[in-house]
Automatic annotation (TrEMBL):
UniProt family annotation: Belongs to the CitM (TC 2.A.11) transporter family.
Transmembrane regions: 6-21, 28-45, 57-80, 92-109, 115-138, 172-195, 223-241, 248-264, 279-306, 318-345, 357-382, 403-421
Major localization listed first in the record, in broad terms: membrane
Organism: Anaerostipes hominis
Annotated protein name in UniProt: ArsB/NhaD family transporter
CDD domains: P_permease
Membrane topology: Multi-pass membrane protein
Domain of life of the organism encoding this protein: Bacteria
Citrate transporter-like domain segment(s): 17-364
Length: 422
């Protein structure tokens, strides 16, 4: 092993340790790791720029800007109240409705944004009903990760995978999206057994929910109409981006620019609402992994994985699926996916058809986030909202439900991948 390889590995491990231990802010750790690679002459500034996946960054910035404008219309509050009333104020139907809404929005927006929008409304409605919101919060955490797995833009790992593998929105719908249908059905059945009979509410509280006026949630009818039209256009463009010869980042950024022009919102407020620490975290992470790739460590790992599985693509697929799921249950899935992407691309350079490996990585990393309370950003955000409202969710309480549900979902995906790629 060369000195450069040792230095690159040491910087990578130190960066990951800082991220995992929370001794440093994730963004500070990632950017510091990138700077160390430059200071040690592992990478030049130009090589750092090449290591950053601009497509991923573009999609994230574009969608964050777009959602920041759209949410000001009040559309998400409208949907939540309307859903509760359609469920007639009954606790189990409300849970199912909010699970489905959370999953769908997580696929169309992203799961962190979705829980920030749906979480407070869930607390408001459960408060009116007089029921414990914790079961609703737990099921929405899982629904956000399940729904985010289904599409190209639903979860950051999918954005990264789609960009690296040149996979389209439709590709995700036909693969991860198809698998997620079965995962969601299984989840709803399990939730019915776990929570269905314990959710009770008084009739007077149901009447209070039915009195809510969803129309009052709309802050700007003009912005609402614009938002619906633009979101539909964006969805269609994502679906047909191959025919339009447009990259996903271009679509997201163009839609954001258009809404900044016509939406009537303060551009500075909207731009400041973008999660810039997250964007910089991605930039630093891409550079740190780029250092490993530059010195040949990724190639060594890829060859090692192939030697373990004997080059059997089915065994490699299942190994990536389950390792991704278990690791992503306890660690942030973004650094893990950032490391595995170049490894899979190296395997591809050996003439191996790696298509099954991309889907295994996506399903494992995204669904693995349901394993523990710290498995994904959406988990931390939504449990934090619940804690701040006076309803803390402990690691153990979530683990008893989340980890078995994660194992079940990954087992379903194993069967799906075996059938799909046998």
């Amino acid at each position: 092993m060369s000195l450069q390889q040792i230095i690159a590995i040491a910087i990578f491990l130190i960066t990951m340790a800082a991220i995992i231990s929370d001794k440093l802010h994730n963004t500070v750790a990632a950017i510091s790791g990138a700077i160390l690679l430059i200071l040690t002459h592992i990478l030049t500034i130009d090589e750092c720029v090449e290591a950053v996946d601009i497509e991923t960054i573009g999609i994230l910035v574009g969608m964050m800007l777009l959602v920041a404008i759209v949410k000001n219309s009040g559309i998400f509050e409208y949907i939540a109240i309307k859903a509760a009333k359609l469920a007639k104020g009954r606790p189990w139907p409300i849970m199912v409705t909010f699970i489905i809404i959370t999953a769908v929005l997580s696929g169309l927006l992203d799961n962190v944004t979705t829980v920030l929008l749906v979480g407070p409304m869930t607390l408001a409605i459960t408060n009116i009903l007089g029921v414990n919101p914790v079961p609703y919060i737990i099921t929405q955490i899982m629904a956000s990760n399940i729904g985010g797995t289904a599409t190209l833009i639903g979860d950051p790992p999918n954005i990264m995978i789609g960009s690296a593998a040149k996979l389209s929105f439709v590709d995700f719908i036909l693969n991860t999206g198809f698998a997620i249908v079965f995962v969601m059905i299984a989840a709803l059945i399990c939730f019915r057994f776990i929570y269905g009979n314990s959710l009770t509410v008084e009739d007077k509280n149901i009447k209070e929910v039915m009195k809510l006026d969803e129309s009052k949630a709309i802050k700007s009818k003009k912005l609402l109409i614009q938002s619906v039209i633009i979101l539909l256009i964006v969805a269609l463009c994502f679906i047909f981006h191959d025919q339009l010869q447009m990259q996903s980042a271009t679509i997201a950024l163009a839609a954001a620019c258009l809404m900044l022009i016509i939406g009537g919102q303060d551009p500075e407020d909207i731009i400041l609402s973008v999660e810039w620490p997250t964007i910089l975290f991605f930039v630093g992470l891409f550079i740190v992994v780029g250092g490993l790739e530059k010195v040949g460590v990724i190639t060594v790992l890829a060859n090692g994985l192939l030697s373990v599985t004997g080059g059997n693509i089915t065994m490699t697929m299942l190994l990536i699926l389950w390792i991704s799921a278990i690791v992503s249950s306890f660690l942030d899935n973004i650094p893990f996916v950032a490391t595995l992407i170049p490894m899979i691309m190296t395997i591809q350079s050996h003439g191996v058809n790696v298509t099954p490996l991309w889907w295994a990585l996506s399903l494992g990393a995204c669904l693995g986030g349901n394993g523990t309370l710290v498995g994904a950003s959406a988990n931390v955000v939504l449990s934090g909202i619940s804690k701040n409202a006076g309803y803390p969710i402990t690691f153990g309480k979530y683990f008893k439900i989340g980890f078995p549900m994660m194992i079940l979902s990954v087992f379903i995906c194993s069967v799906f991948l075996l059938i799909r790629f046998s």
